[in-house]
Each structure stands twice: as C-alpha cells, then as structure tokens.
Design goal:
CATH architecture of the largest domain: 3-Layer(aba) Sandwich
CATH class of the largest domain: Alpha Beta
Helix content: 40-55%
Largest sheet: 5 strands, parallel
Structural class: alpha/beta
Distance between the termini: 49 Å
Strand content: 15-25%
Length: 239
C-alpha cells in the first residue's frame, strides 16, 4: 500500500510538480492550496508525511504546524520556505516540524528528503522493537518509555512527542551517561548531512527539556556539557 503524503503550497505549478514526482516515486498524494484546508485534511486524514509551505493564504504554514501538534497530530512535517531566514527555519522546528527545505529546490530533493524522513521513522520503530524485545519499558528518573508503542510518560502523564523528539530521547537513553556531540546526535538521529547547522539538535533538545524537565533552566536529565554537547543522566534523588 503506497504511503500517503499531503502536499501544501499556494503555487499551483509547485503543487503539480511535487505531486507528479512524488506519485512517480510511488507515493499517494493529496493536495491543499491554503492553510485552513491543510489543517482540516491534516487533522482528519491519516498521512505518513506532510510537505508544508510556510507562506500560505488563510493561515500560514507555521500556524498550521502549531495547530496540528496542539491537536496531537504527530505526522512528520517537511517545511518548505522561500525565505533564506534562519528565524523562520528555527521557529518551524520549534513548532514541531521535522525538517525543512529552502526554495528553490529540485523535485528529486523533495522526494529524497521524504524517503529519508519516512525511512528514519520506520527504522527507529524497528530498532526500538529489536533493542527492547525483552525489555518492555525503559525508565530514567520519573520518565518511562515504551519503545514498542512509541509512548513516553512523565509520572503517569502521557507525553506527546514528535517522531524526531522520540528518536532523540531514545538515542540519549541508550547512551545514558555518555557525552554526545551535536554532530553525533545529528548523524545518529537525522542520518544525513543536514542543510544548515547543528542548531536543529539544540531546538529538539529544548523541546525535550520542556516536556520532561521540572525546570528547563536547571535540567536534571539532559545536561549541557559546555563546548562538547549533551549528556543524559539519571537524576539524583534530591533533585
């Protein structure tokens, strides 16, 4: 069964081009030309990936991404932007996007990036199942992870993590106590040379801290090792 992709752009020529190339690559493609239509389709249909332009009528792509995540839609999102503006890129990632491409881009690049995102999502699930075949859950401090179900709990409260946040947390847990550089995390979790820099790692670390740390400015789980990277630690009892 082909994987389903929602393509959202207000330029008909781009939508047609992406739809043709993605369908040629074996994907099933649904399209939308404005933000409100994208939000409605994203909330009510089951997609494997959303390719989402930032500059849209009715509602911009950043707001669409934000509302999808707020409504617990965790479908991977590939952002498209015509702006060479680092603020937009970082803001998109902060709102829950998994990746971005800056226009102009080639259709082949979009297809390759889509495949990479979906491959990583499937790969993370398969790896989790393999590594945790005997151990049904992983616990660190008050955080409990069920890799087989892609679920994370803080105390007894379920946390809503994007696929990329989950993969990053799982990788940190598997390497608990080790200092991991941003490049190591980028290569392990994103699995390709990211267009830009390692700030994508910092953004996702910030997301995780907001969800699992009692105080984000004084983290007890994910510690910053100045000049090196990050380390996940078992919190002390008094913390």
């Amino acid at each position: 069964m082909p994987q389903k992709v929602l393509v959202v752009d207000d330029e008909e020529s781009i939508v047609t081009l992406l739809q043709f190339n993605l369908e040629q690559a074996g994907f099933s493609v649904t399209t939308a030309m404005d933000g409100k239509a994208a939000l409605e389709k994203g909330q009510h249909d089951d997609f494997d990936l959303i390719v989402l332009d930032i500059m849209l009528p009715e509602m911009d792509g950043l707001e669409v991404c934000k509302q999808l995540r707020q409504s617990k839609v965790m479908t991977p999102i590939l952002m498209l932007t015509a702006k060479d503006d680092e603020f937009d890129k970082v803001l998109g990632l902060e709102l829950g996007a998994d990746d971005y491409l800056t226009k102009p881009f080639s259709p082949r690049e979009v297809v390759a990036r889509a495949r990479a995102i979906l491959r990583r999502t499937r790969g993370a699930q398969a790896t989790a199942l393999k590594q945790e075949k005997e151990v049904k859950k992983m616990t660190i401090g008050n955080v409990t992870i069920y890799p087989e179900n892609y679920e994370v709990y803080l105390f007894s409260e379920a946390l809503e993590l994007t696929p990329k946040e989950f993969e990053l947390l799982l990788y940190l847990v598997h390497h608990k106590g080790r200092v991991l550089t941003r490049d190591q995390l980028l290569n392990a979790v994103w699995n390709y040379e990211f267009v830009g820099d390692t700030r994508i790692v910092d953004v996702h670390i910030s997301h995780l801290r907001e969800k699992i740390e009692p105080l984000t400015k004084k983290p007890i789980y994910i510690k910053t090792i100045r000049g090196l990277g990050y380390k996940l630690e078992e919190p002390a009892i008094n913390e």
